[in-house]
Amino acid sequence: MDATEAQSAEAFFASAPPLKDREVIVARVEEFVRRRLPIGGTRMVCITSGGTTVPLERKCVRFIDNFSSGHRGAASTECFLKAGYAVIFINRRGSAQPFCRSLPEDPLLTCFEPDGNKGIQPDPKHAVVVQEAVTEYHSALKTGYLLHLPYTTLFEYLEILRIVSLSSQQLQRHCMFYLAAAVSDFYVPWNSMVEHKIQSGVGPMAMELAQVPKMLMLLRHVWAPEAFCVSFKLETDTNILMKKAEAARERYGMHAVVANELETRKQKVIVVTSEGQKLVEKDAFQADVEIPLVNFLIAQQTSYIEAGGVYV
Ligand code: 9Z3
């Protein structure tokens, strides 16, 4: 990567607002990574999920958002945990969570009912799914296999991703990055952002957005150069999807790029690796396309580890 790219990334972080609870997050990540040592035991994956927001005002009333329900990240977290991986789940506050995908939309209000004695009890209609979700989630937390780090803004997302990747360097090829979050390409730099709510009634408004530095490049080559890196490419125009995915793999040196089209993303994806393109589809017996996708990527990482890093 060239010096200008590294400089613009440094400038981004230097001007970003301070990350709330930074020390706590760093300590939790370091402890989580330490539990995976010595290398060769449990592998670790960092899954990003949901869409980042780009605030337009420091005291933020308005923001730009990127689409992602968080389903891909939540389902994949479940699959990696089942496969024995330790998972750092970086997700957008309020987006889908692992083990909760079969709960109704407002689980707290719908799954519980008054017991007639000033207390509450699970509604029998939902008792089984609630019990499964709570048991599986808490068991993953208690056994130290799941670390959940929520974000809202693009600034928080990139700060947390940098903390995790720098910390995970020591896991070398036994760490995977699975970057399913929908990350904004444009933003308003903090030092040029207005403090108060932008006023209306003054006619049309023009706003210039800066380009977000290419952090995938930094992650891959500087922050965690040995980790197995998987990024996602989302398009709505299928005619350009594969070209963009191939270009992303080459440009950023990703080990795999998962190409998906918005409308069919839950049924099929195409994974681009140095070996070519692989169609991964959900079959009639699988609940989610993430099951075959995660299995395929785990096998790819195994080859990467066994090849001693000579892979790309
Ligand atoms: C994806 O492509 C994800 O698969 C989806 C998942 C966001 C489509 P859902 O959360 O959807 O299950 O509703 N994520 C990456 C999207 C993205 O922003 N990629 C960037 C790009 O395409 C590269 S990092 O330029």
UniProtKB/TrEMBL annotation:
Protein name, as recorded: DNA/pantothenate metabolism flavoprotein C-terminal domain-containing protein
One example of a Gene Ontology biological process annotation: coenzyme A biosynthetic process
The family assignment reads: Belongs to the PPC synthetase family.
One term of GO molecular function: catalytic activity
Q: Which InterPro entries match?
A: CoaB-like_sf, DNA/pantothenate-metab_flavo_C
> Which Pfam families does this UniProt record tie to the protein?
DFP
Identify the residues that the record assigns to the DNA/pantothenate metabolism flavoprotein C-terminal domain, covering every copy: 43-91, 168-278
**Domain of life, per lineage:** Eukaryota
Signal peptide positions (record): none
Species of the source:
Ceratodon purpureus (Fire moss)
SUPFAM superfamilies assigned: CoaB-like (SSF102645)
